[in-house]
Amino acid sequence: MSVLVYTENNNGSFKKSVYEVVSYAKALADSLNTSLTAISIGNVDQPALASLGNYGASRVLDVSNDQLKQFINQAYASVIAEAANYVGADLIVISNSFSGKGLAPRVAAKLQAGLADGAVELPQIDGDKITVKKTAFSGKAFALTELTSAKKVIALNPNAFELRETGGNAEIEPFHPTIPNNDFATAIQDIVRTTDKVTLPDAEIVVSAGRGLKGPENWGMIEELADALGAATACSKPVSDAGWRPHSEHVGQTGITVSPNLYIAIGISGAIQHLAGVSASKTIVVINKDPEAPFFKVADYGIVGDAFEVVPKLTAAIKAYKG
Amino acid sequence: MNILVCISNVPDTTSKITFTSDHTSLNTSGIQFIVNPYDEIALSKAIGLAEGGNGTVTVINIGETGTEATIRKALATGADQAVRVNAVPRDAWFVAHQIANYAKDKGFDLILTGRESIDYNGAQVAAFVGELLGIPSISTAKKIDIDGNAATVEREIEGGKEVLSVPLPLVAGTAEGVAEPRIPNMRGIMSARTKPLDVIEPVEVPVLSKVVRYETPEPRGAVTWVDAGEVEKLVDLLHNKAKVI
């Protein structure tokens, strides 16, 4: 069995989460005593493709094709399934990104492969059996899912695996798949970027605020703290329901589940639905004026105080530390 | 328009999740089950599209008799008819096969699911159904507009959105923003009792994966308090102790 990893590009370049997924796939390939092939679809330049070698891909299939310049999940799934057959891969690793969620099930269905999405660590491997620990109940639990099929697909959560540089080199090989015309029914009309800053699902640091901020006009200090930290901004459900912030920032059981290294919660009481969405964070800081706020029970560091006083001071202290 | 909405029966969002002593299944005692919140968005969108004699809304659920209260709620909200596939919803692969098998010869223009269920969080069903039926699927749709035989769909991406034009039939997994959730009114609740709810038996589906054990997250250690006047100390702890900045 060999391992194939799909390396999603963002306008021709690779984000950190791609190198995470390659590092993860390389660790899997090592435990299975096999090699790792990466597949890149869309127009990515040669130095970026070569950089995948430094994280353990020994071979890169490069699909540079104008028809496939932009992500169409149906067509990309056909390409990845064909590549898996071409290289004889039994295990396919994909990022659990928004695009990955639309892609991984279609790849798995084509290959009759079991799919474990939302993987949070390396699986247990016992002969042909692979057991993947994945998030369930929106962060309230984990499900150890055994993939019993011959071919298997794993979708890895962002920030779940560290980068591992191998210093290796990859052989880049142009790949020319045959794609059914039917796969191109969907057409992209427009791509709208609402932020050129850090994006929430794969952010390493998240600064999140709740109703304690009293109104949308007070978000300036949250954005300043986020800028100082290189963080993404987020909010609680009441805040997005009230229209103070967009739904895409809503973290919680019915919003985005995040897994950053650092989650800073400001003026959020900590309802069970919100806590579910942040339980995978490595370190949690809570700032709240109410010492009884339930969020403090799951915090690593807590400050009892008025957000309007504490946050600007914290931003200044971060700036001073960063110099 | 002929619309199929797939609904899942899930624990209420306020539920504390625990498992049976052998860690293989959810401990359902004391848990209230609801229509998956994302599926409610799908249902509300479908009802809005079909309103005014513009079409019919069928809901499908894979579950045993215990899920009928959830199905009746969907009928009370405004769906015209319902189908229950009489089986335990083993996993997304199984569920998607039941939906695809039911839908394959019914001529649905639009099949909607929630973008994920809040219990197993697979976000898989929409794309599986699309693949099984050989039609386009959009996961995490933020906005859906129908114009004749095509849809304009906005899809969430990291840091923005993509605007797609897609021919019908189409499968979409709906997220917040697609429609305001509708609440059943008294007339809806009364009429739900007499709306058709068919029960069909499942098709067999090969097992490709199984959950062998559930775990709950390790509790965190006690909180370290930092005085509101000493934020520099927090910066120091985050840098030197937690090593996250």
TrEMBL record, chain A:
Coiled-coil zones: none
Highest taxon above the source species: Bacteria
Residues of the Electron transfer flavoprotein alpha/beta-subunit N-terminal domain: 3-188
Keywords: Electron transport, Transport
InterPro entries: DHS-like_NAD/FAD-binding_dom, ETF_a/b_N, ETF_a/FixB, ETF_asu_C, Rossmann-like_a/b/a_fold
Residues making up the signal peptide according to the UniProt record: none
Pfam families linked: ETF (PF01012), ETF_alpha (PF00766)
Record carries keyword Cell membrane: no
Transmembrane segments: none
The keyword Ion transport is annotated on this UniProt entry: no
Family: Belongs to the ETF alpha-subunit/FixB family.
Protein name, per record: Electron transfer flavoprotein subunit alpha
Protein species of origin: Parapedobacter defluvii
Gene name, Swiss-Prot/TrEMBL: etfA
TrEMBL record, chain B:
Keyword Electron transport appears in the UniProt entry: yes
Keyword line: Electron transport, Transport
Domain of life: Bacteria
Presence of keyword Ubl conjugation: no
Domain Electron transfer flavoprotein alpha/beta-subunit N-terminal: 23-209
Protein name (Swiss-Prot/TrEMBL): Electron transfer flavoprotein subunit alpha
Organism of derivation: Parapedobacter defluvii
